[in-house]
């Protein structure tokens, strides 16, 4: 544990984020004294009165108050990082970069007209990012920019949330209700959702839609009739003739039937997700999935037979009890299937997950995988994706992510998911419908973003649907 003291600056929050990266590796109770005395910052790590080590960094001030404040924080983060790196003998893959969108920084540097070499040197010197992650950042940023440059003014994307799943996975922190408990709510939910769809379609009549994403939860938790009804309502409400991408996150194989796959295909869905997370049966059992590895393979084959030619598969690194060999096995199995997209998630222990509760209660079955192992798993994924001809095209990070790593989407050329990039980079408005969905109205190429949230609770959403619609009406009018 580290007790922090700050003098002459107000960067406590930023420094705490750096300390958090090293916390798992520090057992002793230590003091970290940081102070700013123009033109330098100092970080001293102490055990009582004993000075363990010290780092001093110059602050590059240019006379602009905002830029100087940023430079001061940057110097403090570096000094603290170096002190803790020396003490723990560990470097962090992302250096002092703690934000969730690392590629935003590369976009800015590319827009300044800087070349790869200069960008690489900047990320290394200013943010202490490792060589691997610098390459990843540049590759992803370029893929993203190629998609974002095709955004048209006035264009929007749509998100529709179906917050039901057959059971709740141990790591879940999404708006997802177990069907076992909430089946009776499905019809009232759809009724409310249809009302919201009708309103948005009317309010945005004539506005071009670039991508449409139906996510959750697991949309295929709906039965065949409900799914057909939803997709028909979407089709008759919006003009989908110009939509570049229409995705449904089918997600869990235990919810997918041949009929649902056929309905999706007939209704114009062009991209689906079938998410194994792991191809190891013991892991699926541990995390609360009620389906087998064979179900994943069967559903994938059925989807292909029905003409689904853009399939994403999600996998998660750091699942309870998984080793690097288990991940290698999952990758072998995915390679045999040959999906167009694979999204590699690193386990994030979020506030709302059952996993977090069980970890706190000391459940050994869910023991965390260490950072080094995750790093090896990530490297293995990079290698194997390249072998499968898949390139990284989008990336994000979450707080509390194991080992301070990232989630990366890989895609075969020409199959990158537009929606994933739009939601991450916030350059186009996304109108989001359903419980817990948050609309983001984006203006001036992302300079201004206004959020219109829907209530998260299923009950509230159903009961207060008119209020949700009113929120949207006001939001749309305000920023027309
Ligand atoms: S399938 Fe996804 S949304 Fe559903 S419970 Fe599992 S993690 Fe949550």
TrEMBL record:
EC number: 1.3.99.22
Annotated ranges, domain Radical SAM core: 150-387
GO molecular function, a single term: oxidoreductase activity
Any one cellular-component term (Gene Ontology): cytoplasm
SUPFAM superfamilies per the UniProt record, alphabetical: Radical SAM enzymes (SSF102114)
Keywords: Oxidoreductase
Gene3D superfamilies registered for this protein in UniProt: tm_1862 like domain (3.80.30.20)
Top EC category: oxidoreductase
Domain of life, source organism: Bacteria
Record InterPro entries: Coproporphyrinogen-III_oxidase, Elp3/MiaA/NifB-like_rSAM, HemZ, rSAM, rSAM_horseshoe, rSAM_sf
GO biological process, one term: porphyrin-containing compound biosynthetic process
The protein's name: Coproporphyrinogen dehydrogenase
Organism for this UniProt entry: Cellulosilyticum lentocellum (strain ATCC 49066 / DSM 5427 / NCIMB 11756 / RHM5)
